[in-house]
Amino acid sequence: MRLLYLTTASPRPAHSGVSLRVEANWQAMRTFGQVEAIVLGSTPGPVTRAALRREGVDFFPARREAMPNRIVRQADALLRGESMLVARALSPERIERLRERIRRLRPDAVVLGDTWLTPLIRVIRPLGPAVVVDTHNVETKLYRRILAQSSGKAALRPLLFYLNMLGLERRLAEADAVWGVSPNDVEHYRTVMGLRDVFVVPNAIDLSRYPTPPEREEAEPGIVFTGDFRYWPNEDAARRLIGQARQLSALGIPHRLWLVGRGPSEAMRTAAAQVPSVTITGEVPDVRPYVQGAAVFAAPLSAGSGTKFKILEAFALRRAVLTTPIGVEGMGCESGRELIVAEDGDTFLNGLTQLLSDRDLRLRLGTAGREWVEAHGSMEALVASMAVALGGTLHGAARTGRGVAAPPETQAASSGYAA
Question: Which pLDDT tens digit goes with each residue over 58-92?
């Protein structure tokens, strides 16, 4: 089988859930045959880029342009119903390069690794291969949730992305198949959007990279939360945790809170400066040592969509997890069995207090979490699900007469990007 994988994120370094999914899906695809990948917009450092190119990954980097030009380009993409997120990485010349790559490779399927890439369906379909859209979450649901908690200038960016995504998600119907990360997302695509060929392709991690650490006794047990804090749901969760740490200190409960990841906001730093138990690390080479060193992984997420890699990583490291309904959405976990789910701030504080003081509970939850990720979030589980999804995708394309090389006269069709 020959596959072409187009993504908006480089598979390495693993700085976000998006890059973790890209890496896992890319590795899983390689078990089925020849895979070439193109990253649109994201460019890692030269050493990583060179290594990835040796493995068959190419890059269409974003244009270097002044902010006014970028705003104009994104506004134009929004008005034309194209993707604001990848407008800087595509041009008529690059669209033609992409067509030439497809003609040369003659892939059985092209996997678009993000809903933001749906405008490319109309570029690819006339060339013959089946087209899959791998969705990381239901994007409109994500932005609705963010908008519900935003106001003023803070609401502008999610509002524009929401408006853009309304049109881009409608284009999912043009694909031969859609992949969702959970049964919840797949059910949404089927019942709300009326899509037919939809498959679960779960988020997964390579468990060999997550040795289970011993439980450590500490005078001040650690609480940890990881994420890219430029992403509003993570920044909001971090500020909530700082407030929880302040309350724990007022109650005299020993603890340390570690907020680990790039892009901490000024609001986070200002709030943390008033709570001595809080440490903001900024970007780190590897989050695993911080998760390993903590007693509790706490994720008070109030917005988001899809399933969360941070929860998978905490499970893999046998950490006790405390989160919200949104944090565990789509995973099918049970509160009190693999983790604890708190509905509001008071119950979250109670959960922290209980976990910090109850080592046996932490051990029990950590063991159950590891068992869950071994069964549902491993690379083996991903490959098995992807085999079903790829088979269904190619079968559906063949059923409708697609998935074979298109006649030459149809290969000049274009999307708005090439106008």
Answer: 999 988 888 888 888 888 888 988 998 888 888 88
Q: Tell me: the pLDDT tens digits for 95-118? A: 999 999 999 999 999 999 999 999
Q: Which domain holds residue 304?
A: 207-376
Number of H helices, E strands in the chain: 15, 13
pTM here is: 0.89
C-alpha 29/C-alpha 314 separation (Å) is: 25
Examine the domain organization and report whether 126 and 236 are in the same domain.
no
Do residues 31 and 180 share a domain? yes
Q: Do residues 299 and 369 touch, judged by C-beta distance below 8 A? A: no
Domain count, the chain: 2
Which CATH number fits the domain that encloses residue 285?
Answer: 3.40.50.2000
Residues 65, 279: Cα–Cα separation, whole Å: 36
Q: Which strands form 177-180's sheet, in the order they lie side by side?
A: 57-61, 34-41, 2-7, 109-112, 130-134, 177-180, 198-200
Q: Is 351 helix (H, G, I), strand (E, B) or coil?
A: helix
Q: Is the dihedral of CA 97, 162, 23, 88 positive or negative?
A: positive
Let me know whether 110 and 258 are in one domain. Answer: no
Whether residues 238 and 145 fall in one domain: no
Is residue 171 within 8 A of residue 152, CB to CB? The reply is no
In this structure, are residues 276 and 261 in contact, taking their beta carbons and an 8 Å threshold?
no
Tell me the residue type at 31: T
Of 270, 235, 282, 275, nearest to 257 by C-alpha is 275
Which structure tokens are listed for 264?
């901490």
Residues 80 and 228 in one domain: no
Query: Is the Cα dihedral 9, 192, 123, 64 positive or negative?
Result: negative
With H, G, I as helix, E, B as strand and everything else as coil, classify residue 367: helix
Q: Characterize 311-342 residue by residue with b for buried, 16 or more Cβ atoms within 10 angstroms of its Cβ, and e for exposed.
A: bbbbbbbbbbbbbbebbbbbbebeeeebbbbb
**Residue written as tokens 């270097």?**
64
